[in-house]
Amino acid sequence: MEHFSIVIAGGGPVGLVTAVALARHGIKVLVMEAAPDIPQDLRAGTFHPPTVEMLDSIGLGDALLAKGVKIPKWQMRDRKKGLVAEFDLGMLADETRFPFRLHCEQHKLSHIAHQALLKLPSATIEFSTSCTGYEQDDDGVTVSFEGPKGAGTVRCDYLVGCDGIRSVVRKTMGTEFEGFTWPERFLVFATPYDMREQGFTGNAYVADPIEWCGIFYQPHDGPPGIWRIAFPVGPELTDEQALTDDYVQARIKGFLSPDMDYEISYRSVYRVHQRVANEFRDRRVMLAGDAAHVNNPIGGMGLNSGIQDGITLAEKLVEILLHGASDELLARYARQRRTANVEYVQAQSIRNKRLLEEKDPAVRQERLDEMRAIGKDPARARAHMLNTSMIASVRRAAEIA
Fold first, then answer.
1. How does pLDDT run across 158-182, given as a tens digit for each residue?
2. What 3-state class would DSSP assign to 20?
3. Cα(163)–Cα(141) distance, integer angstroms
């Protein structure tokens, strides 16, 4: 039976980045990915400053920066009254080398990480191969898989589950995936129309009790790029009805000019979950990314948190495998990343969504007035951006022993 130091279940961006962070140290790592090639998932595409810092630390920063676009400013808007507050991450230039949100589709990071892995002799990636379970003992983990040639097993020192919201690794671990599913679905569509013509920055959140939305610009395959918009879809509509031209056009005309039709280049409907695994580690098996936690996309924190999981875990595995550190580092990983997710990612993303959708007029006005006051006060704006940029959550995690 072939032996690897690390097996990673899941070859999305989190799994591939974790593999790069390990293999660049010569650690023998195997990535199993169920899809036949790099998944082309268009949902996530915002990289916050500390995530770019981490990716830069493992040699992926320059390539990602070349593929993405820097968005230093983002807005909070009211659908009827317009701009509420605008925040400039340039204020954080003394806190980070990357004082902006980097917008780039997540599959581009996956391709960059995959190309990096192909140059690292200690890395192996197997497509069309799914982890189907595992058994562990004091000396290692036996991982079961299903691949092009049928079922098999492989042996490793440690297994990392990066296999998404339906994670086989998490289910085999037997830990609870605590939380809830939002009652409404999200309609996400894209248009090449340049929303800057109507006063938007490259990232904006529009509050409304019925038709709130999130907007962000993506470079896509070059100029002029695309603008992606996320709306809520209530239970009274089927997915098919929400995807019709009439429905999509009505949504976009609700907050942009109603006097024109907009080209729609992409549309999709999906459910949104808010969940965190009760445990991130069981002895030699760890969870990272969507296998460990999922959240709504308002604020762009899910992918970032997953990448931060993977690189933080890789740093600890390097210390264990190459420098004789104690396995207690893995318990610290679990404490750090679960705390950061619960206290910051889950809390902030839930607050973000509730701010946009608040239906009580008095509460809604109070919250928007508060955002307006924060935007006008440099000290409060700075503190707000440290939270929303995830700098504060990364620092909080680093403090946990």
1. 999 999 999 999 999 999 999 999 9
2. helix
3. 17
Residue with tokens 């983002």: 74
The sign one gets for the Cα dihedral 104, 109, 115, 120 is positive
CA gap 10, 309 in Å, rounded: 14
Give counts: helices (H), strands (E), the chain: 13, 19
**What is each CA distance from 315 to 25, 27, 308, 379, in whole angstroms?**
10, 12, 11, 34
Nearest Cα neighbor of 28 from 5, 1, 7 is 5
C-alpha to C-alpha distance for 91 and 73, rounded to whole angstroms: 10
Of the candidates 323, 270, 315, the one whose C-alpha atom is nearest the C-alpha of residue 288 is 315
Alpha carbon 59 to its chain's center: 20
Q: b vs e for 157-183, b when ≥16 Cβ sit within 10 Å of the residue's Cβ?
A: bbbbbbbbeebbbbebbebebeeeeee
Q: Global pTM?
A: 0.95
Packing angle between helix 378-388 and helix 361-376, nearest 10 degrees? 110
Q: Any residues with CB less than 8 A from the CB of 121 and at least 6 apart, and which?
A: none
Contacts of 367-370 spanning 24+ positions with Cβ under 8 A: 368/76, 368/78, 368/84, 368/207
* SS3 of residue 133 by DSSP: strand
Residues of the chain with pLDDT under 70: 42, 221-223
What residues contact residue 197 under an 8 Å CB cut-off, 6+ apart? none
The greatest distance separating any two alpha carbons of the chain, rounded to the nearest whole angstrom, comes to: 68
- Each residue of 345-359: pLDDT tens digit? 999 999 999 999 999
150 CA to centre of own chain: 32
How many Å apart are CA 226 and CA 92, to the nearest integer? Answer: 27
Residue showing tokens 């006005």: 365
